[in-house]
Amino acid sequence: TGAISSLQRQLEIQESQLRRTKSEKEMLQKKLREQENQLQAMSTKFCSLREEQEHAEMMVTIEKENCSLRQVVTEQESKLAEQNKLISELQGTVSQLQAEVLTSRHLIHEQQRAQEAIQSQAKTLEHRELQARVALECITSRFERYRSKIIQATFSTAGSKAPQAEVTDEELLEAMQKIINERMEFHQMLKQKGVR
């Protein structure tokens, strides 16, 4: 946004300079037309003179004025050419600044779209994380209930001692394995005695 503001300020300055240069160009053209009209008026005046002496004197005066006017016209045309060149350069600068402003706006729009997409993905991930946490809590709760039932079933068998502290998974597994081994031994003994 700062870059766009800076570019727009530069654009306004260049456009102001362009308007000022065009105004100067119009003023120079107006002066040029006035001087051409003066030259035309002098020529008309020269044609209206009939007396030879006045004609000769007027001819010299007109020639001097014509030389002066030609010099002024040449200078004005040179200035006008410089103004036209400056106008062209300013128009090029204005076009470049306008293109940079459009590019900056496009980049900002793309960044906003990317940010919106990232925010949408973040919301989706947050929702999924919440769902995963709820599912994890549910599974953990079920697992703890199931583990509690296993502990209860394991240590409630005949000959088992109730645990005095919290049972680790390894201790629970050893207790279950012990019960399974004892039942297998008991089953083998019954088979050997022929009891079904």
TrEMBL record:
Residues 4-45, 73-128 form a coiled coil. Keywords: Coiled coil. InterPro entries: CC-FHA_domain. It comes from the Eukaryota. This is CCD27 protein. It comes from Himantopus himantopus. The gene is Ccdc27.
